[in-house]
Write a structure and sequence with these properties.
The structure is a homodimer. With about 525 residues, the first copy, chain A, is α/β, with parallel strands linked by helices. Chain A folds into 2 domains: about 120 residues, Diaminopimelate Epimerase, Chain A, domain 1, CATH 3.10.310.70; about 325 residues, TIM Barrel, CATH 3.20.20. Chain A has 16 helices and 22 strands. Chain A has an 8-stranded parallel sheet. Chain A has a 6-stranded mixed sheet with strand order 7-8-9-10-12-11, sandwiched between helices. In chain A, strand 15, helix 9 and strand 16 form a beta-alpha-beta unit. In chain A, helix 6 packs across helix 7 and helix 9 crosses helix 10.
């Protein structure tokens, strides 16, 4: 089954495609099947769906994270410490112990971990571990020593060195992360190749056949090209460069064409208006409920942001701006308003995350063809934290998926992997329940912002394709579209939310070729 | 007509090719022509030759030079000054006046020009003009001021600030050029696109269908990819990266595949062992005859050069080392000797220019599969200068084309454009005469180093293809080769040297498509 271009569900019993992997025809119940066996596979009545599209992920980070120390499943600091010790022992040749995925909120720690915690398990090599949201990193004492961080070090603009008394204690927030990160040896091109292939394998295994890459660096791009040139690119990547410079350096006066049979395109530019809620980097209109002196951080001045948006838009690049706090969202909406007269036409301004929006600003997402690019699972992961950060009274416009649709915004869903698992079935189930994997809270968190099962499906397929100017290429199974589909073990339109979350992808096909199979 | 893979001349009356532009068959005199008209063009008995391959050029420099102020035809400083003034007046929007091609030897000046000469014609904007050989640049006072060059400035390693008394006088040799060059605003990607297309147009107009690009930067490469992605790359580019870093960053663990139907490949790495003779940067075994205290400049220590060669070869990149002076050539030969046991197989070590070789070293070019990549026209341009720099006694191994072949070296010819014109007919005529366009010196300069007309042709076609690992793709018209050919207005095997130099290319075809036509 699939949706048609109007978002209506269509059932079919077979799919006919061209030798180069485009859909020619969907066969209806009872319709004569072609005489000649030009089918590549007999699906034997299994459930076929269009491949999912993740509208917001970080391809290389997913691959690197998978090859590095992964703390994302840890439930306590002690568990994390034993995993770190084991990884260090298993990887004696690694000059730095790198990894991430920790979240002191999940650990119930009530504060950031410290360098001393790390020193207790690894002191012979620098250790540098990023928080689950990427907005903070945690190092051991040797990492700080290598980086020359001392009691005299001051927090840079847009960042914060966490301190105990006068002494840096090992955690670096937002822009302060660079103080240590710049000393980490950069990966070699061969490491980048491995990371890309690893990420691709993970994504295809979740039934994701296309993904936006939010923040492609020049070196990321060169890795995509190496694998594309070799014919090793199986997934489709819609690339948004990390800031304006790489887009211009790579693509010149506007987006690249689609490359490698619609596998890769640099379409736009990713910018940041603020940080994230977990590290109190999200930019709020009023102070944090749990830190009354803090408003979060605007990543750049209003003028700078507008100049960058304008510089990208001038050359026809799509603009995608990360905005989490209500102040940041308002600033981005203001900037789009200010720019709409100059940059007319089909611009598809993207607001990434759009997590906390002042209810007064919600209707503004329906103007200027804005796309809200949101991540359902963030809502369940953040629930406790966001209540603490904002307080009950300011949650009306939080993760407001239904309001976005009601106001006429475009809606595209993703996972923000590797911040969350890329699993689209978890995102899908969350979107129409606002309940987490254990069914909490019963009835859903602020359930008025649930959307329908079909609306959520569309946001993970056709809506996400539209958000990347790819709706003529893929996003549904229809005549002329790329035959990107998956075979799954149950009917996701009939499954309970719990069953939907347990869906297993059995095969993944991209452009009419089987590129992944469950073993 | 063409040569076969053994370098033998073959005459044919027609060429049959596949729809994707590969040669299927050469038709012999009297042989039945295909019934069906699957010919793309009736050449009406004109002379068809394989496209030329320039084994050593600088694609982007050619394009930029063509778009910038061109002083290469100037015969005096006064003529140059009036051209500079006219260009400045015609380009009021250019923030810097950039260009090159000057040669104080041609001007008969006897010394470098000065900043004061430039100030007399342009003083409101910085002026920065490179010497014909690229080994020196000439700026006005404003350029030096912008760069902060004063009487206190000291010459960097590998370079020299020319001074009058204690004061810098406007000319900067070799590495010293960077003092000012780093202040020149870099070209935008759109400027790079324009330069590439301009260079391509010029090269195709000379009948050059493939070229080595000696010193591709990352930004050059990104321009090649932009034009390749758009389908605008018409010429074939065999790319040698500017140093080791870009090769690894772009291609990772070894050369890229051939891209865009064999239009582009990064195959190797270009390194520099020394500078050039004109600016006395070439590294000699004994002092310059006209500067008895100078030996020229080794660009890097022996160890550094070997490390770089080794690092490139380790990942399977081809190594091409610029060596002009006899000392530099000896050092490169030593390095190849030292490396040959470690890096076995088909390595095709390239020595670029190999201009002045100690006769004792000449036989060493026949070992280890070395390719001498030489530029015939340099011999006629440099003749007077090289006699002054070296004196008569040291010219036995100078531009020793015949010795290279006799000793068993591979021989590939190019022009070093834009240092010289890319015109391959000039190079071809020079190679078997050792006389310049005006027939001087009568009988040829050191005529024992002439080679045959056919040997020279091969060095500009099949020999140049072999030098870039492309002999299975192009370089001659034979079954399975790409149909890269040109239509010319005379028979170059019968023409007198003077007539050969006057050959006009009428059409240029690459991969079976007409990509250039004389209008």
């Amino acid at each position: 089954m699939t949706m048609d271009k109007d978002g209506k569900v269509i059932q079919f019993t077979g799919l006919v495609m061209t030798p180069d992997g485009k859909v020619v025809k969907l066969l209806k119940q009872g319709e004569k099947r072609p005489d000649k066996l030009d089918w590549r596979a007999d699906m034997k009545g299994k459930v076929m769906l269009p491949g999912f599209i993740d509208a917001h992920g970080h391809v290389m980070d997913l691959g690197f994270r998978a090859l590095e120390l992964d703390l994302s499943g840890t439930k306590s600091l002690e568990e994390a410490k034993s995993k770190i010790a084991a990884y260090a022992a298993a990887n004696p040749d690694r000059k730095w112990i790198l990894g991430g995925g920790w979240n002191q909120e999940v650990w119930g720690l009530g504060h950031f971990p410290t360098a001393a915690d790390l020193d207790a398990v690894v002191s012979d090599r620098p250790v540098w571990l990023s928080r689950a949201d990427g907005h903070a990193s945690w190092g051991n004492s040797l990492a700080m020593k290598v980086a020359g961080v001392t009691a005299k070090s001051v927090s840079p603009a847009g960042g914060r060195i966490e301190k105990t008394g006068a002494l840096p204690n090992g955690v670096f927030v937002d822009a302060a992360q660079a103080l240590v990160a710049k000393l980490v040896p950069p990966p070699l091109p061969r490491d980048r190749n491995s990371a890309l292939l690893k990420a691709q394998e993970i994504l295809l295994g979740f039934g994701i056949t296309a993904t936006a890459d939010m923040g492609t660096t020049l070196d990321d791009w060169l890795a995509y090209r190496r694998m594309g040139d070799k014919g090793s690119l199986r997934i489709r990547i819609i690339s948004y460069s990390s800031g304006v410079e790489p887009a211009i350096q790579i693509a010149g006066n506007g987006p690249t064409p689609w490359l490698y049979n619609d596998k890769l395109r640099l379409i736009g530019v990713k910018l940041y208006a603020d940080g994230a809620l977990g590290s109190r980097g999200a930019w709020l209109k009023a102070p944090y409920a749990d830190a009354p002196k803090e408003l979060g951080l605007g990543f750049m001045s209003d003028d700078v942001m507008r100049n960058l948006m304008s510089r990208a838009a001038m050359d026809g690049f799509q603009v995608a701006v990360h905005a989490i706090g209500d102040r940041a969202n308002a600033e981005v909406l203001n900037a789009i308003d200010a720019m709409a007269d100059t940059y007319k036409g089909d611009r598809r301004w993207r607001v990434e995350h759009a997590q906390i929006v002042d209810p007064a600003d919600l209707p503004r997402f329906g103007k200027n063809g804005i796309i809200a690019s949101m991540q359902p699972v963030h809502q369940t992961s953040d629930r406790g934290m966001v209540e603490a950060r904002l307080g009950e009274a300011r949650l009306t416009g939080a993760y407001a998926w239904a309001s976005m649709l009601r106001n006429g915004a475009g809606l595209a869903f993703g996972s923000d992997y590797p911040v969350e698992s890329p699993d689209p079935f978890a995102g899908w189930a969350t979107a129409f329940t606002r309940m987490d994997a254990s069914g909490q809270p019963f009835g859903g968190w602020r359930p008025e912002e649930r959307i329908s099962r079909e609306q959520a499906w569309w946001a993970f397929t056709g809506g996400a394709a539209y958000a990347g100017y790819a709706e003529d290429k893929f996003g549904r199974l229809g005549v002329g579209q790329r035959a990107d589909f998956i075979i799954v073990d149950r009917d996701p339109l009939l499954a309970s939310p719990t069953d939907l979350r347990a869906t297993k992808v059995q095969e993944t096909w991209v452009g009419g070729e089987k590129v992944w199979e469950r073993r």
